[in-house]
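job 3f2a | input accepted
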Amino acid sequence: MYKLKEFLKDPRYKFTVWFILINVAYYAFNCFRFGVSLTATQAYEAGGFASFFVEYDFEIYRFITANFVHFSLLHILVNMISMWNIGRLVETIYSRRNYLYILAGSALGTTCFTYLIYIVTDIGRTSVSAGASGVVCGLMGVMLYLSFFQKNIYYGTKSYVLQNMVIMILFSFTLPVGSFIGHVGGLIGGFIAAYYIDLPNRLRKNNNKYN
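job 3f2a | predicted structure (211 res):
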């Protein structure tokens, strides 16, 4: 019990731990409501994302809540292990505030990109998507950004990120709960978040070049 308390209080991974705990707690809550595995209708009721209903019922809260809903034990297990592995790494690189920006950008990137694809192509009209895998992909997007724009420090992480991206893509197609569009959106959201966080440093470096 003592080690668990120390683990939960570890300041290095504070928000990663709390993100995992919130997901696990909400999954446990939904288990009491619906059972260990959720149907699409149950996932939607729990806060999952469905573009058509977001458009016509204006349920914008789903852009966030969908990232905390999981369909099954396997679904949440894969996502939380992935979150633990890469979340700790990213959290030690950034300040707490910037890490929260990254989590938010990744979560919104997942659902906003899904919604954008629906508006443009009508793909995923009534399908229900949910899960934290988009946020995990967002963290991969952050590491991908660092491996390209801070090569002297993070060059060795590129192969690690690419390997995990391949795993997430395979997960998208092998399990029905995986959303390829959502994963791509999360990756883009994390990459953009990292870009804007780093933008002041990039502008300062460019100004120094011409001064």
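job 3f2a | DSSP finds eleven helices and no strands in the chain.
job 3f2a | closed
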